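Backbone-to-sequence.
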């Protein structure tokens, strides 16, 4: 269950997530991973409409997705707007340095196949 905060009037306010999106697992490109994103955590779980099987939600804030150039811009916007937020730091992938010629090395572990 997502955490909710209450403002001074006792009204429930949702927490925003600030994060840098991960790379698409199906492709090697890094498009759409350079910017920081601010989006609200869902207030209620999605419901399945019984007749047609559509997934629906009554949470309108879940449709809001703002992008920023830097982490500082996203935090400044949340603070300026009075939005409680959580920052999720990105996990940089560990890159293995390998030359093309290592595919044909005598020290190679395992067989080379197509």
């Amino acid at each position: 269950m997502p955490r909710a905060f209450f403002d001074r009037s006792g009204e429930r306010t949702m927490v925003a997530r600030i994060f840098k999106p991960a790379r698409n697992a199906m492709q090697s490109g890094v498009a759409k991973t350079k910017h920081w994103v601010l989006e609200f955590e869902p207030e209620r779980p999605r419901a399945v409409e019984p007749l047609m099987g559509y997934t629906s939600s009554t949470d309108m804030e879940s449709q809001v997705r703002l992008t920023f150039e830097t982490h500082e811009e996203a935090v400044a916007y949340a603070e300026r707007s009075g939005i409680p937020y959580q920052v999720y730091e990105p996990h940089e992938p560990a890159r293995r340095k390998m030359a093309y010629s290592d595919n044909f090395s005598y020290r190679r572990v395992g067989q080379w196949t197509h």
